[in-house]
Give the backbone structure.
Amino acid sequence: MSNNGGGEADLDVEALARRYAEEREKRLRADAVTQYQSLKGRFAAFDVDPNSVPDFQRERVEREADVVIIGGGFGGLLTAVQLRKRGVENIVIIEKGADFGGTWYWNRYPGIRCDVESYIYLPLLEETGYVPSEKYAKGAEIYEQCRLIAEKFGLYADALFQTLAETLTWDNDVQRWIVTTNRGDRISARFTVAATGLYSSPKLPGIPGIETFEGPSFHTSRWDYAFTGGDADGNLTGLQGKTVGIIGTGSTGIQCVPPVAQWAQQLYLFQRTPASVDVRGNGPTDVEWFRSLEPGWQRERMLNFTQWTSGLPQAIDMVGDSMTDLFREKTTSAGVEMSPEEREKAEILKMERVRRRIDEIVEDKATAEALKPYFHYFCKRPGFSDHYLQVFNRPNVTLVDTAGKGVERVTPQGLVVDGREYELDCLIYATGFDFMTSYTRESGLSITGRDGVSLEEHWKNGAHTLFGMQTRGFPNFFVLTIVQAGTSINYLHTADVQSIYMADLIAHCLDNRLGTVEPTQEAEDEWVDLCIQLSAERHAFFEKCTPSYFNFEGARPREFELNSPFGGGPLAYFEYLAKMSEEKFAHRLEFG
Ligand code: NDP
């Protein structure tokens, strides 16, 4: 490949492809997604919510509602807001945590921020008038925005916190969903929306001996500040004098490593696959600029970002960051989609720049080499940090590279890699979340539709949906995931569009006194066929990728085609939904 004018030397693309394939081979394992275990059974202690109200008690609730929403994260909040905007008042929200916020309630680890620009990621900024303090917001700020939205739209009054929805059963005679919870509640609802989140089920690696470690140990999603001291801004005084181990170098690991390195006496970071870590470039908000934005700016900016990151260059790049710059050296004109070859070239060059940045920052050559990612840029969620690579120049930080094999064993005292035991005072799992493997397992919900059919049974060979949100045989039931849905890198954009669609449809039913709505068999089959057809390209790409949750750890289970995002991309998906609303749901749906 020739010089692209951006300072890139010639690259041997074939040699790189061979290297990528070798790195993938090293990491493939027969147990694929089953190598992980959930925070249940003997690991239930890992799932205890450090931020809940201890011994929380309340009266059991028995009532009727127009809509029950399960989950108070972005999906649930936005759906509730859109329903309120359409005059639907009788809404109950059931939430496992002690407050709204979802991901941003649970994840409070030190250093937490969102990788997506705050101006397009914090929901409903125009409605709340909130001005994010920085271009990339801290987790706590996003959490506060969720609380502010819930206050503004009066969602606290009917929220049931620290409550797990357990069963959702459709009663065809009365055309209601009966929702029961672990606190004995029984709610009869016309519609249910399962918005249980994308990354809500933390997982632990199945490393032999994992249950034997004797020191404090926790998952990043349940950070134990009682032990570490401090808060998300650092000041982790409890780690002073301690030897700490962190397993995992995904987006979470990248963010929590710098503050831990600052406070621990010694940090061992256990790496299986290096992340791609690009420039962050955070900075304070120019408040004057922010206040000058015209109404409608947030959706316009979200769209501009999704267009750029979908390979559809525009005349201007509003966000202008390390995510959108991937395609900035475009050869196509604004509004013309890039060809697969152009995208491929841009992605190869991006990864090369990411590897060179490591050489520029990390002083120890062997460590720098071990930190270099050799996979296609989009095989894993790209990371961004101006602090992560720098920690490897500290004398108290050691990268323990496991050469793609992962940690060998956990002992009562620490971790074993390549036959050497690393003794630890504390062990932190930055090992991610169960993702798109089984909706029932991830959500913990037992859902029974018409004729007593369970959703688990209905989807046992993969999901069957219309637009990823509805499934035939389960009237008035909506689910918010990205399975069979087109998703932007900015999840807020997806959640925003889906919530508007759902609220439009539910309001349409209520306004027109329509008792039930579900996809026609024909429309569902068509959508599923389209998803399968469009998944071919995606599969060809992921088949060459290093294992991760994106490609079911390199395996290709039968349900892969079905349990994947819509291959047509977010922009086409958003158009489908907008058209459905515009046409007043005249097609694809059966009303009863
Ligand atoms: P990930 O699944 O991305 O990362 C898990 C890490 O654990 C990987 O590095 C994985 O290695 C490692 N691991 C797993 N098993 C072992 C083992 N046996 N031995 C050694 N290492 C092991 O989880 P994250 O929590 O980092 O991120 C999940 C998602 O959440 C992200 O992809 C992103 O979408 C979102 N997120 C966004 C953030 C943001 O916007 N700032 C911040 C945090 C998360 P391997 O790669 O080899 O599998």
